[in-house]
Amino acid sequence: MSETLKMDATLSEDGPFMNDRQKEYFRRKLLAWKAEILRESRETLEALANENSSQADAADRASSETDRAIELRARDRQRKLISKIDAALERIEDGTYGFCEETGEPISLKRLDARPIATMSLEAQERHERREKVYRDE
Questions:
Q1: For the chain, how many structural domains are there in total?
Q2: CATH number at residue 101
Q3: Could you tell me which residues come within 8 angstroms of residue 3 by beta carbon, excluding any fewer than 6 positions away?
Q4: Ranges for the Zinc finger DksA/TraR C4-type domain (predicted)?
């Protein structure tokens, strides 16, 4: 994220969990992240639009098409990420942000700072991933 937000007294664990200062910190962090993704997406679209597709060499065209496909897959992942950012912003508004969707317990501020779209505590996420792995391995 280009706008660096520092984890400081705003995220102090003193006082009530997810107080107004903490909500504002995460709201700003999520909005900055979303703005950066949208900026990168616009730049990619401009680059793809300006790309010269009239390359004579078949190998150059194939390479260019491969690069384009990779870039479009990355943009699709970022589109999904924007949906998760929007969902996190909605949770901030409705007061459920920062609470584990599985246990209802607070998600650690350090985890939220590292992954502001997290919907589960680290422990719940690990249990979820272990269950997924078991089902995948069967």
A1: 1
A2: 1.20.120.910
A3: 28, 32, 36
A4: 95-130
- Alpha carbon 127 to chain centroid distance? 21
Look at residue 2 and tell me if it is in a domain.
no
Two tokens, residue 31: 């909005």
Which tokens sit at 44? Answer: 């990619």
Q: Residue written as tokens 């508004």?
A: 93
DSSP state of 107: P
* Predicted confidence (pLDDT) per residue in 6-50, tens digit: 555 466 777 799 999 999 999 999 999 999 999 988 888 777 777
Closest CA to 64 of 76, 50, 52: 52
Question: pTM score, two decimals?
Answer: 0.78
Distance CA 85, CA 5 (A): 16
41 contacts: CB under 8 Å, gap ≥ 6? 75, 78, 79
Nearest 5°: phi and psi at 106? -65, 140
**DSSP letters for 75-115:** HHHHHHHHHHHHHHHHHHHHT-TTB-TTT-PBPPHHHHHH-
